[in-house]
C-alpha cells in the first residue's frame, strides 16, 4: 500500500524529506518541493478564508504552469475539488463546463480571462507567465494576493472515496461529461503506475502534454510523489522538446509515436545525447517495428506502451519492455492489464463475456476506475455492466496470453494529436450552418496527427456548401482541433434499415490498407 493517506501527504512528505530538491523545472517558474508545499499552504488557507467549503470546486484555465500544481496541492490540503479546463476551448464551451461544474473560484492565465463568463460569481484570480499579469476589472492578481497570505496548512484534506478531481471529456451527446476521480483512485494510480517504471527521487520526467490530460497530470503526480522532478512545457515544439530533454537530463519521457518518429528521422535530434533516458513511454497507438528499432537505437532506453482512459486514470494495460523486441508477436497489442486491474471483452449488446480471440467491447474494473460522471446518473448507469465492469467504448479482443488488441471505437471517439474528439459535438456545430441538411463526422488518417475529423455533409435542397466556409463556420463554435480538416458533400448518407448512419461505410475507403483504425 502507498505510504500516503491523502494527496496532501504527498507534498508534505517530499517537502520534509528533501525540501531543496527541484520539483518543477523547464518552462515557467521553477520551484523546489519545499517551496511548492509552502505556497500551496498559503493558497489552501487563502481559499478557505474566502469561504470555500469542503467539496467545493476550484477551476484552472491556463497552459501548463507551476501555478497548476500549487492549486492542485492547495485543493488537496483544503478539501476542495480541482477542475482543470482545456485552454483550447471556445468561450461557449468554457461557459458550459463552468455552469455544469459550478466552481466556487477560478485561477486563470491572463490571456485566457476573456473566456470566462462575466457573470462568474466566485473569486477570480489571474496570473501571467510573461511578467506582470493584465488584471481585468473584477479580477485579482494571484501573485499579489498570495503574497498577503500566511503559509499555514489548512489541514482540511479528504481521503478514501472522497471526490478530488473533475476532468471533462466530450460526450457522445455533444456536451462534455465530468469524469469523477477520488483521492483513493489517484493514490492507487501513483503506486501502481510508478512501480512499473522505476520512478524514484532521482527521476526527471519529461511530460510535454497539457495537465488537463490525465496522461500528463497523472504522470507528473507520480514523479512528484516519488520526490523527483517534472520538466514543464508551456508551449511544445520539437525544438524546445529536444532542448529540455537533453538540457535537463530527462530519465523518463512521455511521447506519442508520431513524435518518436520525428526524433528518429531528424538529423539534429537523432544525434543528441540521450544517455540519461531510462524509459520512453508512449500511448495513443501502437508503433511499427521500424519505429521501435529506430527509437531503441536513438534513445538507448526501455520502451513501453500504456493504454487507458480518463475514466481509468490513464492506467489499464501496459505493453512492457520485454515485448519491444524484433519479431515480437504482441507489438501491435496494447499490452496486458496492470496488476490490480481486471480487463475483459463483453458483447456490447448482451453484456456476456466473449471467448478468447473474439472481438467485443473492452471492459475493465479496478481501483482507478471512475465511480460516476458528474451529475449524469443515466450516463453513469449506461457505462457499467453488472459486477462493476466499466465499458470503455473500445472494440477489441484478448488473446490466449491476456494481451489486449484494439480494433475500433464503439463510441466513434476520434483521437487527433492526443486530443479526444466526439463526432456528435462536431456534428452539432455543423448543423447550425443554414445550408446543411445532414452531417456525419468520421476520423480519417493523418500522417501528422494520427487522424483528423472529416465531415460528410448533405446540403439542403437548392443550397450549395463550400468546404472551407463550413470549416470556418465550425471554428467560430468549437476549439480548432475539433473542427473538420476536410469536407465531402454527398447526396445522401448511407443508413441501415432502422435509419442509423453507417459510419463504418464512410470510414472504410479512408482506412483501407491501415492495420488499425483506432488510436
TrEMBL record:
Q: Which Gene3D superfamilies match?
A: 3.30.300.30, N-terminal domain of ligase-like
Q: Specify the AMP-binding enzyme C-terminal domain's residue ranges.
A: 425-500
The record lists the organism as Mumia xiangluensis
> What PANTHER family does UniProt report for this protein, alphabetically?
LONG-CHAIN-FATTY-ACID--COA LIGASE, NONRIBOSOMAL PEPTIDE SYNTHASE PES1 (EUROFUNG)-RELATED
UniProt cross-references to SUPFAM superfamilies, sorted A to Z: Acetyl-CoA synthetase-like
Q: Which PROSITE patterns does this entry report, sorted A to Z?
A: AMP_BINDING
Q: Where is the AMP-dependent synthetase/ligase domain?
A: 12-374
Keywords (A to Z) from UniProt: Ligase
Protein name in the entry? Long-chain-fatty-acid--CoA ligase
The first-level EC class reads: ligase
Q: What are the recorded GO MF terms, alphabetically?
A: long-chain fatty acid-CoA ligase activity
Record EC number: 6.2.1.3
Please verify whether the record's keywords include Glycoprotein: no
* Tagged with keyword Ligase: yes
Amino acid at each position: 500500500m502507498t505510504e500516503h493517506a491523502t494527496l496532501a501527504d504527498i507534498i508534505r512528505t517530499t517537502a520534509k524529506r528533501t525540501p531543496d530538491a527541484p520539483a518543477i523545472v523547464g518552462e515557467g517558474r521553477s520551484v523546489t518541493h519545499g517551496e511548492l508545499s509552502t505556497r500551496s499552504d498559503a493558497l489552501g488557507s487563502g481559499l478557505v478564508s474566502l469561504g470555500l467549503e469542503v467539496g467545493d470546486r476550484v477551476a484552472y484555465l491556463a497552459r501548463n504552469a507551476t501555478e497548476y500544481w500549487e492549486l492542485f496541492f492547495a485543493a488537496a490540503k483544503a478539501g476542495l475539488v480541482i477542475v482543470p479546463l482545456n485552454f483550447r476551448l471556445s468561450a461557449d464551451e468554457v461557459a458550459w463546463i463552468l455552469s455544469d461544474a459550478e466552481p466556487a473560484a477560478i485561477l486563470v492565465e491572463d490571456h485566457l480571462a476573456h473566456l470566462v463568463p462575466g457573470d462568474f460569481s466566485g473569486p477570480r484570480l489571474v496570473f501571467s507567465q510573461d511578467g506582470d499579469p493584465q488584471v481585468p476589472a473584477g479580477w485579482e492578481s494571484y501573485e499579489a494576493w498570495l503574497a498577503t497570505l500566511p503559509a499555514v496548512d489548512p489541514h482540511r484534506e479528504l481521503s478514501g472515496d472522497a471526490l478530488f478531481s473533475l476532468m471533462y471529456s466530450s460526450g457522445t451527446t455533444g456536451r462534455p461529461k465530468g469524469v469523477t476521480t477520488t483521492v483513493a483512485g489517484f493514490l492507487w494510480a501513483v503506486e501502481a503506475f510508478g512501480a512499473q517504471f522505476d520512478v524514484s527521487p532521482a527521476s526527471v520526467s519529461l511530460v510535454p502534454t497539457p495537465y488537463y490530460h490525465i496522461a500528463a497530470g497523472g504522470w507528473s503526480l507520480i514523479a512528484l510523489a516519488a520526490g523527483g522532478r517534472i520538466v514543464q512545457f508551456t508551449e511544445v515544439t520539437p525544438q524546445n522538446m529536444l532542448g529540455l530533454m537533453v538540457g535537463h537530463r530527462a530519465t523518463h519521457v512521455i511521447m506519442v509515436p508520431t513524435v518518436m518518429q520525428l526524433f528518429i528521422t531528424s538529423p539534429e535530434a537523432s544525434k543528441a545525447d540521450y544517455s540519461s533516458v531510462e524509459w520512453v513511454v508512449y500511448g495513443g497507438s501502437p508503433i511499427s517495428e521500424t519505429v521501435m528499432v529506430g527509437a531503441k537505437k536513438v534513445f538507448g532506453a526501455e520502451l513501453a506502451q500504456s493504454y487507458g482512459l480518463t475514466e481509468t486514470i490513464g492506467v489499464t494495460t501496459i505493453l512492457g519492455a520485454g515485448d519491444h523486441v524484433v519479431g515480437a508477436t504482441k507489438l501491435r497489442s496494447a499490452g496486458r492489464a496492470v496488476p490490480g486491474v481486471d480487463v475483459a471483452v463483453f458483447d456490447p449488446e448482451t453484456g456476456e463475456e466473449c471467448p478468447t480471440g473474439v472481438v467485443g467491447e473492452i471492459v475493465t474494473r479496478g481501483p482507478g476506475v471512475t465511480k460516476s460522471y458528474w451529475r449524469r446518473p443515466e450516463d453513469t448507469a449506461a457505462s457499467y455492466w453488472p459486477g462493476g465492469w466499466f465499458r470503455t467504448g473500445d472494440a477489441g479482443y484478448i488473446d490466449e496470453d491476456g494481451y489486449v488488441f484494439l480494433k475500433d471505437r464503439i463510441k466513434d471517439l476520434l483521437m487527433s494529436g492526443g486530443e479526444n474528439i466526439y463526432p456528435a459535438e462536431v456534428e452539432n456545430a455543423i448543423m447550425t450552418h443554414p445550408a446543411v441538411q445532414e452531417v456525419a463526422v468520421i476520423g480519417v488518417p493523418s500522417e501528422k496527427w494520427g487522424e483528423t475529423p472529416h465531415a460528410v455533409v448533405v446540403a439542403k435542397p437548392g443550397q450549395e456548401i463550400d468546404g472551407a466556409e463550413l470549416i470556418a463556420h465550425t471554428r467560430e463554435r468549437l476549439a480548432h482541433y475539433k473542427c473538420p480538416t476536410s469536407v465531402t458533400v454527398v447526396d445522401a448518407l448511407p443508413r441501415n434499415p432502422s435509419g442509423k448512419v453507417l459510419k463504418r461505410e464512410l470510414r472504410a475507403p479512408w482506412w483501407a490498407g491501415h492495420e488499425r483504425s483506432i488510436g
